[in-house]
Amino acid sequence: MQVTRAFSPASIGKAYLQAMGIRPVLERQPDFDRSVLGWAMSAFYGGRAECRIRKVALPVIYLDFVSMYPTINALMATWELVIARRIAVDDVTAKVQKLLAVPDLFERCFSKSFWRQLKCLVEIEPDNDVLPVRAAYDPASADYGIGVNPYRLAGSAWYPLGDVVASAIFSGRVPPIRRALYLRGVGVQSGLKPVAIWGSVQVDPTDGDFFCKAIELRHTLDDDPSLSKDERDRLGPFLKVLANGASYGILAEFVRHESKDPVPVTVYADRNDPFETTTLAPEEPGPYCFPPLAACITGAARLMVALLERSVTDLGGSYVFCDTDSMGIVADASGGSYACPGGPEKLPDSREAVRALSWAQVDGIVQRFATLNPYDRRAVPGSILKVEKENFEGGDPTRPRRQLCCWAISAKRYVLYTLGEGSPELVRATDDHEEALGDELGLAKASQHGLGHLLNPLDPDDPSDDWVTEAWTYLLRKALGLAAEEPRWLNRPALTRVTASSPTVLRWFKGLNEGKGYAEQVKPANFLLLAHPDPLDPSGILPIAPYESNASRWDDLEWIDRRNGQRIGITTDALDGNERPGVVRVRTYGDVLASYLAHPEAKSLGPEGEPVGRRTVGVLGRRPVEAAPPLRYVGKEGNKLDDRISGLVGEPSDYRTEYVDSHNDYWHQVVLPVLAAMDRKTLIEKSRLHRRTIERYLYGGVVPHPGNLALLTEIARKELPQETLGDGGRTRAVIPCGRADSAIRSCQRS
Fold it and tell me: Which of 234, 238, 520, 683 qualifies as a cystine partner to 516, CB 3.0-4.6 A?
């Protein structure tokens, strides 16, 4: 059996579970409490990613956890739930209250037996407790972000026990606990059978943890003389995909469908009572979807990162970034202090600074996590926290350690480099997830987050990321005050390759296809080029063109407007107020890099406690969040990611489902009736929103994203007296949104 990119982690994981005869939880237990599923989905958050020191070059050690999600599953003993005949939900409120009240909670987290207790959902009353919060942190964005921040809510919220433990070790206090529900496996499914991994290693689902077996096999490949190097190179990434896909991804899988007519649904969320509503985009759970376990796994993973953070800060140290299962800790060979705005230390010249831990101190932290190793030590020896290979000369752990440096802009936008004779050489700025898909991680790698949707401006058919490395080198040298040669492609239009994958896209090219032979027409599955309009261009044109591999001809292509299929022109000339009809100013690669450099870390605060802006530099702090009612209920957030990044999809309603309780909703009860009574032309002029956008809000059942919601609320406010509209939470800095459960909506559809 060979694996290629055509196989997703989810599909591989499901295939192996099916081969073992393991039935999904909700199939073997269709009467599972719907309310618990709703509470679990409101408690579900993804990986923790943040920038903690912004735009300051610092020495670091780069650490990474061994196979985070399979390791978490092994520690929590979740396999007993996967193969159980049924899953019971036990009230363990008193037990959890006692567990969290112990004075040595942080130390207890380093005992393997502690983690078995984390298969638990907890209802708490957040009062400045450090918790994951999904919120509209950035008013300029239509999307919600997730930050681990002090959170205050007038009421209760559900969280995995792992997040509540993390909050307690951060703040030293335990939030009031209303309920705690533990997931307990009862019996074993019938019909389970062994399966061969890669056609050779037999794994019996009733004899040990499948996740452990896959990881242990992966770590012993080099010791198997029967495998060639090519086989090891293929099998290693496959085993990582298998373990990750089966241990987490399929448990949180949802598929969004689109309907022409409103579909009635019953929504179970974080409340004790469900509510009825309708949607044009209902969501179906994947076959193995089970929100309670998905929430507990990700919560425990965030606890693992919290333990690492606390271990660093207890020694007086700092970190530049963390990303799901990794962290860049400020460290050098012997320890010292480095100038950094907002740092807790002072240099002799009174500049603020951060302390660098010594390599020996970091090694001590690494060894502390050895107590949590759930694997056979013959296969996976030592600690589950590793000093990554990039910290060693040539990326070889058998060679001497070298000093890495890091410079970060925001979450997932950072670069690791070495300094050779004062000149930076990029090492790596991407995590290990790509390795699971078969990519070789070498040197001179740079973070593609926020850039990966763009074509190589030198050769669009070249899949390498050399241009990204060149871009990061240019940005880094400028940041370090070094001479930086501008890439020769900076002024080319920034383009994205998309596919003619729907009738809507093909209709755009109807006029362009007329009079052309079939071979020259835009056809289904053809590649296309999409340009990105300058946000300040007033034309509203959305340019797209047939694919062209010669980058020097991009300016001369037959461009059309996606809105109406009419032919248009593009330009990269600066806007001067004398724009030509039918011509749109598009962003260049230089424009993209400028905005990339200015990207904010909106879920944090700057060194002086101010919102993070374009010029913010230094140590960032956690941003306190207070809930401003009403909370919003959203579905799956990862829909149409490629189309959103490329620009094919812009309206949030096209990729995100929101479920509105019309009986408890400020927008529907107060604001919408005011706007509906206004003159349509006046409303469009005051809001400066497109007519079709306004119509979707007024008649299509679409709830505006936070930026437009604030704008339209203010317009309505001016139409009626202040006391009529009230505040509606408008003055709050951040409005978090709840999370409803997709799995239950589909089951309850009428």
Answer: 520
Q: Which helix (H) or strand (E) holds 646?
A: helix 641-646
Sequence-separated (6 or more) residues with CB below 8 Å from residue 356: 58, 59, 317, 330, 331, 332, 335, 336, 337, 338
Strand partners, 133: 147
Which tokens sit at 417?
Answer: 């480099």
Distance of CA 16 to the CA centre of its chain: 26
- The residue with tokens 């073997």 is 28
DSSP string, 484-509: -PPPTTTTSBPEEEEE--SHHHHHHT
The pLDDT tens digits for 77-100 are: 999 999 999 999 999 999 999 999
* Burial (0-12, 13-18, 19+ Cβ within 10 Å), 184: middle
Q: Is the pLDDT of residue 750 over 60?
A: no
Mean pLDDT (whole number) for 399-404: 95
Report pTM.
0.86
Q: Helix 93-100 and helix 161-171: axis angle, to 10°?
A: 30
Q: Where are the domains positioned within the chain?
A: 495-587, 629-635+643-731
**CATH number corresponding to 629-635+643-731:** 1.10.260
CA dihedral (130, 132, 135, 139) positive or negative: positive
Region at 654 (left for phi over 0; alpha for psi -120 to 50; beta for the rest): alpha
Distance CA 116, CA 562 (A): 53
pLDDT tens across 173-195, in order?
A: 999 999 999 999 999 999 999 98
β strands within 153-260, DSSP E? 157-160, 177-186, 195-197, 201-203, 254-256
